[in-house]
Amino acid sequence: MLFDAHTHLNFEELTKEERLNLASEIEASDLDYIIDVGDCVESSRQALEDADKYDWCYAAVGIHPDHASVYTDADIEEIRKLAAHPKAMAIGEIGLDFYYGKDDQVEQQELFRKQIRLANELKMPIMIHSRDANQLTMDILVEEGAFSEERKSWFPKRPGPYPDDARVQMHCYSGSAEMAEEYIKMGATISLGGPITFKNGKKAVEVFQHLPVEYVMSETDAPFMAPEPLRGRPNKPYYVEHVVRKMAELKGLSYEEMASILTANAKRFFNIK
Ligand SMILES: [Zn+2]
Question: 34 CA distance to ligand 1 centroid (A)?
């Protein structure tokens, strides 16, 4: 019944056994689907290995801005090959991180642009990581055609007041409610995780309350950012339940109703039948 639309079962610090145990816990939980997101060639490969192994696991392949100073063009070619896998549903996570990356901002922008172009070439959904770079992220997405009429023509219309779908996921969105609205008008989908449950998570709550629920996805970004009441521990994909419960409460819907809406949104976005 639940969908974790951005998570890292592939996380490099998990041992083989820990990953197996986590998969069994997922199978025993309410979680029906995850998108296992790569952040470099190696982790993207692991994500596809996970997807091959588990029916409920789908992958995204891409190079995170953290690797901007070390990636090579051969790595991008490798991502292109991995993206041909039938369970590679998106290019990601890609984007800008100016919180940690202060010295490689030029390289980050280059890497980001190259991968938007790759997603356009392959006509695939995109998963965006953006930290301390809100406006520049939007500018680059627009400049590289992530919201072009052509891109929108590749994907079926979606329900609600903003039917154009460019299949751009704003993962763990941390910008303003106004910018979120601008994004969904352009054809993006806003993905929210743990911060919506935090005591200081007012901004994420505002964003969620401002948007029609058709344009929202639930995620964990596990093993990072565990939701309340588990904050501070390593996060797990099935903890997405706490994110969904909070969203249900905020919109005055039952947990089951909210879970089924969010699952339908993510299945549509990632083209999962
Ligand atoms: Zn992530």
Answer: 12
- Alpha carbon distance 145, 177 (integer Å): 23
Would you tell me how many other CB atoms lie within 10 Å of the CB of residue 49? 16
**H or E stretch at 250:** helix 240-251
CA angle 201–199–32, rounded 5-degree value = 70
Rounded to whole angstroms, the Cα distance separating 44 from 77 reads 13
Q: How far apart are CA 108 and CA 127, in angstroms?
A: 15
How many A from CA of 37 to the centre of ligand 1?
6
Tell me, in angstroms, the distance from the centre of ligand 1 to residue 99's CA. 15
221 CA to centre of ligand 1 in angstroms: 5
pLDDT in tens, 163-205: 999 999 999 999 999 999 999 999 999 999 999 999 999 999 9
The answer to whether 219 and 2 have CB atoms below 8 angstroms apart is no
**Ligand 1 mean position to 7 CA, how many Å?**
6
pLDDT in tens, 84-110: 999 999 999 999 999 986 799 999 999
Instruction: Give the strand pairing for 188-192 and 168-170.
Output: parallel
Could you give the CA distance from residue 131 to residue 173 in angstroms, rounded to a whole number?
Answer: 9
Alpha-carbon gap, residue 53 to 67, rounded angstroms: 27
- List the domains of the chain with CATH numbers: 2-269 (3.20.20.140)
CB burial of residue 231 (10 Å; 0-12, 13-18, 19+): middle
**Ligand 1 geometric centre to CA of 54 (Å):** 20
Could you tell me the distance, in angstroms and rounded to a whole number, from the CA of residue 171 to the centre of ligand 1? 7
